[in-house]
Amino acid sequence: MRPLRTAVAGVVLGMLGLAACGQSDGSATSASPAASNPAASNSAASGGAFPVTVQAGNGAVTIAKRPEHIVSLSPTATEILFAIGAGAQVGAVDDQSNYPPEAPKTSLSGFKPNVEAIAAAKPDLIVLANDLEGVVAGLGKVGVPVLLEPAATKLEDTYDQIRDLGAATGNVDKAEEVAGGVKQKIDALVAAAPKGKGLTYYHELDTTPYAATSSTFIGQVYSLFGLKNIADEAPDAAGGYPKLSAEFVAKADPDLIFLGDTKCCGQNAAALAKRPGWSGLAALKRDRVVELDDDVASRWGPRVADLAQVVSDAVQKAAG
């Protein structure tokens, strides 16, 4: 289980504001599909040619040969690596990487990274989402390629990072298939969604309660379905993650409530009804409280398509 959302508000929420960077085979940095960029497509499509250069958050990273003992300190990167067929190349993952179940979870931490402990895992490629405590510079002295793949700020970043890791691991074709599949599913869900309903929503990150505005990655997912975010009207957006008062939410009375704190904090419709002034909320009265999987709601990997499916189902039900 990851740290409680109050810790997330101070650390992870800040990390979610970081920009994700693009993938390259040494010449291209576009987030567009490799099919539209022959140079990017051909470099590793035929079995994953090496050396390969990836444009990551820490600059251009050259990987001399196909990695066989990857250490992932990012739950999202772990999900991507397994989704693109690189699972057998992963030797160790951090203590928050709980999906897929077969990921080789260890006590390594992405929140409090220890260079010596990471190096002791004998990696030939290290992937992380955050440069905390100067870990990237520290790992640079170890002589192992390090890919910094920060939190996505838009859906294109998700597709881009999938391709990044495909190039870095020699799984270009599968990565392209996964990225294309996620985009295709989301596009289809959005196209089929009811239009012009003007539904409002509240997405809860933790019981503080912290929320996410439309400017955030997850907020943009909701916006695809035409939903209006009550957090956008908060007096202090706090970089996209404002701390709301119970009174603010009660007054806004959203049509839909999405809970991203079900696993960490045991939240559900019954728990919300016990909060002062919330029992009369329209979302509770009309059975429009959606309990999300915390992990799916806070990561930006392939399962963002699953999140989009849940949002789509909720919109369809509310509009029906």
From TrEMBL:
Residues 69-319 form the Fe/B12 periplasmic-binding domain. Residues 1-20 form the signal peptide. CDD domains: YvrC. Keywords: Signal. Pfam families: Peripla_BP_2 (PF01497). Belongs to the bacterial solute-binding protein 8 family. This is ABC transporter substrate-binding protein. It comes from Microbispora triticiradicis. The lineage of its organism: Bacteria, Bacillati, Actinomycetota, Actinomycetes, Streptosporangiales.
